[in-house]
């Protein structure tokens, strides 16, 4: 079982990355995007100056796009690697994380496109971004729990080599993700999700927080015990940045693009990256085992040939 655990150095690295932003906050470092108002009524201003001021005004939106798109790319790379891993080894763990991360990545991508007005909509970004964020996080937690819970109950033998089922499920969830975000973007009114004067500044983020805690303490450890692998153990470790992300949003973020908002979006990338690293480590171990097996086979053949030549 121990050989199927993520190296403790990597676990501590994840913990340090999750804690470091808060420690830097205590030292006075602010990760919030600077806010600047663009006054369209200002006269005697050059075109270049207008463009420059607009870029500074939209710096928060640019940072949000970069962070969300980085998370999306990480999810896509993990999906591709997990599907290859599943196809080669018929490992029952990979379709779960593959479907979950593909679906979550699609939600993140559509959420970003809607926030940048690349998906037509009428909802105000002040409501659209935090509301779709909360929906995306809830979606992510539920699909991870649903996938892990399903394979804790179902017999995995019949699902091995079911690569077509995994791909089809991923596409279905991708369409659902686009549909949900599109509805939100086209809604004229969305529920209020930010309460800056409350202890819980974003109550909609409490539900995903509780679900991730439940997954990390109950579901994922049982899943790992039943299907031990570096990948399934990485799923447990990924809960650390998932919970840290929700804590920053639920109890810290009071407005768009502020300090806790940007930290949470960064930590979500780490949460997606941990399973990806787990897959890479599994590939490395498999390669080393194959190399060791080939070396042992070569040595055995050498001994056999020497014995055969002596017998002659």
From TrEMBL:
Keywords: Membrane, Transmembrane, Transmembrane helix
Transmembrane stretches, start-end: 7-27, 69-88, 93-111, 131-153, 165-186, 206-224, 231-251, 263-284
Cell division as UniProt keyword: no
Cross-referenced InterPro entries: MASE3
Signal peptide coordinates: none
The keyword Magnesium belongs to this UniProt entry's keyword annotation: no
Pfam families associated with the record: MASE3
Domain Membrane-associated sensor: 62-282
Entry protein name: Membrane-associated sensor domain-containing protein
């Amino acid at each position: 079982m121990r050989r199927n655990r993520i190296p403790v150095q990597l676990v501590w690295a994840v913990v340090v990355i999750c804690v470091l932003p808060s420690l830097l906050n205590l030292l006075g470092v602010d990760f919030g995007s600077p806010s600047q108002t663009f006054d369209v009524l200002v006269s005697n201003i050059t075109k270049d100056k207008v463009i420059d001021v607009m870029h500074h005004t939209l710096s928060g939106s640019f940072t949000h796009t970069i962070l969300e798109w980085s998370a999306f790319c990480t999810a896509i790379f993990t999906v591709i690697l997990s599907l290859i891993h599943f196809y080669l080894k018929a490992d029952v763990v990979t379709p779960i994380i593959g479907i979950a991360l593909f679906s979550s990545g699609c939600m993140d991508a559509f959420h970003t496109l809607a926030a940048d007005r690349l998906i037509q909509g009428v909802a105000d970004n002040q409501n659209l971004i935090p509301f779709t964020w909360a929906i995306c996080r809830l979606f992510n937690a539920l699909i991870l729990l649903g996938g892990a819970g399903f394979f804790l109950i179902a017999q995995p033998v019949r699902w091995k080599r079911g690569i077509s089922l995994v791909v089809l499920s991923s596409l279905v969830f991708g369409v659902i993700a686009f549909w949900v975000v599109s509805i939100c973007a086209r809604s004229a009114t969305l529920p209020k999700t930010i309460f800056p004067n409350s202890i819980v500044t974003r109550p909609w983020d409490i539900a995903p927080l509780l679900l991730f805690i439940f997954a990390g303490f109950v579901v994922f450890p049982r899943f790992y015990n039943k299907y031990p692998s570096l990948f399934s153990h990485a799923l447990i470790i990924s809960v650390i940045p998932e919970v840290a992300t929700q804590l920053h949003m639920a109890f810290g973020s009071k407005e768009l693009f502020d300090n806790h908002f940007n930290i949470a979006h960064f930590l979500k990338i780490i949460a997606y990256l941990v399973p990806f690293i787990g897959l890479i480590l599994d590939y490395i171990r498999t390669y080393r085992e194959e190399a060791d097996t080939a070396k042992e086979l070569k040595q055995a053949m050498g001994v056999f040939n020497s014995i055969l030549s002596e017998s002659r």
